Amino acid sequence: MHLPFRDVARVGPNDLITSDPELMRRMLNVRTHYRRSAWYDAMRLDPTKDNVLSQRNDELHASTRSKMAAGYSGREVDDLEPRIDANVQRLIGLIDGYIARDKPFDFGHKAQYFTLDIISDLAFGEPFGDVETDSDVHGYIGATEESMPTIIVTTVMPWVMKLLQMPIFKGMLPSDKDPVGVGRTMAIAKKVTAERFGPNAKVQRDMLGSFVAKGLGRSQVESEILMQILAGDTFKGVYLPGGTKIGYCAWGIYRRRDIFGDDADEFRPERWVEAPEEKLRLMEDTLELVFGYGRWQCLGKNIAMMELNKVFVELVRRFDLAVVNPIKPWNSTKRRSFPAV
């Protein structure tokens, strides 16, 4: 997808996929006339409720984002940086334990534990405890991985979501009565939300407290705790009929040789040091698309960057990480799902 003549390719009767960062910015900018398609209906963790990711109504989406922005920016979260620092230290302690026992470990799992702990710490005021226990405490990660094939099916066949909302299929959906998985997280969300909206509610300066203070309702808060676009355009001489779904190919965008060099498929961090200023700016602007762009840019981008900058500095400073088996560095499963606009 990173070759010039394949910047836009047809993958279905009414579906295109692109690896062109210019088209991505055109579709996602704040004044775009593109709209989210039914693909996003599958992003509802609770099939009966929209969240800021699944919301397709532009006005409601903008309103919800405006009420959540302060919380995600960290401006209204007490001890934001110390909380992240504490979680980084817990991760370092976990890795130190493996080193002391001379035992290899799957860093992918530890990274997931670390991320969930930070999100829950900032949102609820305390971490789930995944890093401390070295486990998926509530089974959230496992349940999410198991449900990924279903999510992919519902993105390409959105009508399945309507079926799942029928009473006959209710038993197949996550429930706050479930002991683990997404359902368990739903239960935590309901419990925490009830405390914030109850008669003895206390104002707390965390992410959730900011959402409440900015006017999100109880149902919206529950949905946000859990947490494609329609065309009609001509781009670079190619007509995109109205109603066409356009997804983006991240693999293609971040391996474009005209942006990242002829060795774009190689892991070579030096490219970021060697690149001339203009080339570096182009590379950085393209890379930032991983957080989305414009009106749909990730609200948590600033927190994510703070988290990444802190944890990588500590990991590189303290450890010399190596792949246990270079011949077979990892096991991977391909599941295809392209956000469509």
Automatic annotation (TrEMBL):
Alphabetized GO MF terms: heme binding; iron ion binding; monooxygenase activity; oxidoreductase activity, acting on paired donors, with incorporation or reduction of molecular oxygen
Protein name: Cytochrome P450
Keyword Metal-binding: yes
Pfam family, one: p450
Domain of life: Eukaryota
Native source organism of the sequence: Zalerion maritima
Transmembrane segments: none
Keyword terms of this UniProt record: Heme, Iron, Metal-binding
Signal peptide: none
